[in-house]
Amino acid sequence: MAQLCDHRDELKRLNTEVLVVSFSTPGPARAWLQEICPSFTMLLDPERKVYLAYGLKRSWLRTWNPVAGWDYMRLLLSGQRVRGIEADPHQLGGDFILDSKGVVRLAHPSKVATDYPPVSDLLALLNNLH
Amino acid sequence: MGNAKVKAGDTAPGFTLSSVNGETVSLEDTLRAQHNILLVFGRHLG
Predict the structure, then answer these.
(1) Is the dihedral angle over the CA atoms A75, A62, A96, B40 positive or is it negative?
(2) How far does the CA of residue B29 sit from the closest CA of chain A (Å)?
(3) Whole-number mean pLDDT of chain A?
(4) A20 touching chain B per CB within 8 A
(5) Which residue in A33, A102, A40, A14 sits closest to B30, CA to CA?
(6) What are phi and psi of A67, to 5 degrees?
(7) Residue A2 is inside which H or E element, if any?
(8) Predicted local confidence at residue A107, as pLDDT
(9) DSSP structure class, residue A90
């Protein structure tokens, strides 16, 4: 997310609104947003109805697995802080690009807890929509 | 709302949620502003 925030001006140029959805409660979510990227809009979905609508599930196995473990270790070894949103470690996330007509142009549900699409891929697709 | 997979080419499921600032934000209203949307669902780790 921090890497995405570094490209906020480009995202604005690409006419793209970033909506971050969190299952957290308002206080921790607000603190997390302030630390990571205050210019993004963070929405609260504590009942995870929108997570479910987009097919994003909870998974113990996809959270505690060697791939995610290696990613956590790599983050820590590189000196980065591992930032937990809060509470449920088993909820998987995802990234979706919607065009201005509301059609899904990219669907990237996380395969494991640390799975994000490369920011360069997101920007390339948004450039194509521009 | 179910939890079927959403795929490229599908119409995005609509929603209305509150922001951390207390505003009500709907997908419909955001699309009405002719914006593309990058929707990022938080994981346990940000």
Answers:
(1) negative
(2) 11
(3) 85
(4) yes
(5) A102
(6) -65, -50
(7) helix A2-5
(8) 97
(9) T
ipTM exceeding the 0.90 mark: no
Which chain A residue is nearest to residue B6, measuring alpha carbons?
A54
DSSP track, A48-78: -HHHHHTT--B-HHHHSSHHHHHHHHHHHHT
Q: Which residue has the tokens 């949307």?
A: B37
How wide is the angle at C-alpha A125 spanned by C-alphas A119 and B1, nearest 5°? 90
Tokens of A95: 């990234």
Local confidence band at B46 (pLDDT 50, 70, 90 cut-offs): very low
Contacts 24+ apart (CB under 8 A), A74-78: none
Report d(CA A23, CA B41) in Å as an integer: 9
B44 pLDDT above the threshold of 80: no
Give, in words, the CATH class of A2-129.
alpha beta
